[in-house]
Amino acid sequence: MASSKPKVLLLGKIDFAHDDWKSLSDTAEIVQAKSKNRKDFIEECKTDHLNNVVAAYRTFTSIDITGMWDEELVNALPKSLGFCAHMGAGYDQIDISACSARDPPLRISNVPTAVDDATADTAVFLILGALRGFNVSMLALRDGKWRGQPMPPLGHDPEGKVLGVLGMGGIGRNMKKKCEAFGMTTIYHNRNPLSDELAGGAKYVSFDELLAQSDVLSLNLPLNKNTRHIISTAEFGKMKKGVVIVNTARGAVMDEDALVKALESGQVLSVGLDVFENEPKVHPGLIDNPHVMLLPHMGTYTIETMIAMEQWCIANVRMAIETGKLKSPVPEQAELQSKSATAAGELVSLGIIA
Ligand SMILES: NC(=O)C1=CN([C@@H]2O[C@H](COP(=O)(O)OP(=O)(O)OC[C@H]3O[C@@H](n4cnc5c(N)ncnc54)[C@H](O)[C@@H]3O)[C@@H](O)[C@H]2O)C=CC1
Ligand SMILES: O=CC(=O)O
Q1: Which of 15, 62, 160, 190 is the most buried (most CB within 10 A)?
Q2: Does position 345 have pLDDT exceeding 80, yes or no?
C-alpha cells in the first residue's frame, strides 16, 4: 500500500545528524537512489521508485551518482520534485536558472551562516601562513633542514596590512572580524555596498581599487558564470607586487594557470588555497611551489560545523514538506519565497537578504 507520508529523496548520506534525520523519517517516507551513475539515475527518475518525490536532500559527493545538476539533469528529475536542500554553502553544482525555469520551479536551498566560523578560521590560518611564508620552512624541516638552507625569506606581519575581501558575505564578514584582532584593516568589493551595520567599518571600493590596494586579497564570492576566472592575468597585473592571495571560495574563481605564472614572476608573493579548479586534482605548478599553502578543501571540516550544516539542511527539507517554503532559499530564488513573512524576516536578520 502506498505511504501517505510525503516522499523525500536522499542523495548522498547523513554522517552526523542522525537524530534529526530519524525524526524527519517519522514524518516522511525516505527513498534513496539505487543508481550508481548519471545515465541510470536519469532512467530511475522515470520509475515508480522516485515517482511522487516532493523534496530531496543532496550532498556534494552525490555528484558521483548524478553528475552536475545541469539543464539535462534538472529536467530529468521527477516533475513532483518541488524542493532540493543542498548540504553546503556553495551551490555551483546546481544550475539555478534551469531549476527556476521548470514549471513549477524547483526551489533550492543552501546552508549559509553555519559554515562561517570554520571557513573563516581556515582563511585566517592560510592568511597568516602565507604572509609568514611558513610553508617553506615546514617543508624544509620535514626534509631534515632546520629552517631551510639557505635561510628562508623573512615573513610579513599582518599588523597594519590591508585585507581586501572579494565577496563580503557571511564568511567574508566573519573573517574580517577575526583579522581585525591581528591589526589588519579591511576593504571590500561586492556588486553593491553593504549597509553600514553589515560592513562594520570596512570600506567599500571598486573591483579595480580592491586589486590595487589589497596587501592580502581573500576570495569569498560564489562560483557562477559571472565569477569564473574573475581573477586572471589582467587582474594579477593590477595588484600590488608581492600581494598575498587566499582562496577558500571555489578554485575556478581564479585562473590557476595564470596564478602559477604570477607566482613564478613574483607578482604574487604567496598564496593559501583550500579550493582548486579541478578537485581533487591540484595543478602541478601549485604543488611544486613552496610559496603555496595547500589544504584539500577542509573549510567546514569540523565536527561542530558538519553537525550544524546537516541539521540546517534537514531543517530545510522539513520546512519544505511541512510549510511549502524553504528556511534558506538560494538568493537567486529569494523572490519565490517572498510570500513568507516569517522566513523572509529570518533571512533579513541573518543578513542573507537585505
Ligand atoms: N572552503 C570551504 O570549505 C567553503 C567554501 N565556501 C564557498 O564560499 C563562498 C562564499 O560563502 P558565503 O560567505 O557563505 O556566501 P555569501 O552568499 O554569504 O557571500 C557571498 C558574497 O559574495 C558576493 N558576490 C556575489 N557575486 C559577486 C561578484 N560578482 N562580485 C563581488 N561579490 C560578489 C555576494 O553579494 C555576497 O556578499 C560559497 O559560495 C562557497 O563557494 C563556503 C563554505 C565552505
Ligand atoms: O565548500 C563547502 C561549502 O559548504 O560550500
Answers
A1: 62
A2: no
Any bridge partners for residue 197, and if so which? none
- Closest ligand (CA of 119): 1
Ligand 1, atom 29: nearest CA belongs to which residue? 227
**What is the distance in A from the centroid of ligand 1 to the CA of 193?**
15
How many residues comprise the chain?
354
Give the whole-angstrom CA distance, residue 247 versus residue 251: 7
Give the whole-angstrom CA distance, residue 202 versus residue 165.
9
Q: Which residues of 12-123 form beta strands (DSSP E)? A: 29-32, 53-58, 83-86, 107-109
Residue 103, SS3 per DSSP = coil
Query: What are the C-alpha distances in Å from 103 to residues 7, 75, 163, 218, 312?
Result: 20, 10, 44, 39, 27
Domains of the chain: total? 2
Q: Which domain holds residue 345?
A: 7-114+303-349
> Is the same domain home to 39 and 165?
no
At 226 the pLDDT is 97
Question: Is 270 in the same domain as 137?
Answer: yes
What is this model's ipTM? 0.99
> Does the global pTM surpass 0.90?
yes
Confirm whether 47 is domain-assigned.
Answer: yes
- 229 given a catalytic annotation: no
Crossing angle of helices 116-132 and 134-142, in 10° steps, is 80
Q: In what order do the strands lie in the sheet with 83-86?
A: 29-32, 7-11, 53-58, 83-86, 107-109
